[in-house]
Amino acid sequence: MKILIVDDSEMVRNFHCYILKSQGFQVMTAVDGADALEKIYGGDHHFDMIITDINMPNMDGYSLIERLREDEQFASVPVIIVSTEDEAQDKTRGFEAGADVYIVKPTEPELLVEQVLMLLGN
Ligand SMILES: [Mg+2]
Questions:
Q1: Strands 2-6, 49-52: parallel, antiparallel or unpaired by DSSP?
Q2: Distance of CA 13 from the midpoint of ligand 1 (Å)
């Protein structure tokens, strides 16, 4: 299982990598939505899940998810948003964009792992 972690904060990327690697997942990282699209379309990587921040330069998380959902190939890839935004309207927008799960930072490792496993059907 390979997961793409998208966040403009290096600290958050490292933290999420650490959590997921400790569970045996392979991870790759991207620094914003545009970088994520390059990694998704540019290489020969297959990602089983995307975990993305919302607030990022160049392309935010909403736009990234919308772009992926428009592509038949990625219409059903599991997507988790992990964001500092805690308002109902942010969550609604995230789900409307096509996210499956919305987690508020700071990330609780147990919650992230639980949601990842749930989305992967374990
Ligand atoms: Mg951010």
A1: parallel
A2: 10
Q: Which residues surround ligand 1, an ion (CB under 5 A)?
A: 8, 53, 55-56
Provide the b/e sequence for 3-22 (b: ≥16 CB within 10 Å).
bbbbbbeeebbebbbebbee
* CA–centroid distance, residue 83 to ligand 1 (Å): 7
Ligand 1 center to 75 CA (angstroms): 24
pTM of the model: 0.96
Domain boundaries, the chain: 2-119
Write down the architecture of domain 2-119 according to CATH.
3-Layer(aba) Sandwich (3.40)
pLDDT tens figures, 24-81: 999 999 999 999 999 999 988 899 999 999 999 999 999 999 999 999 999 999 999 9
Whether the per-residue pLDDT at 122 is higher than 80: the answer is no
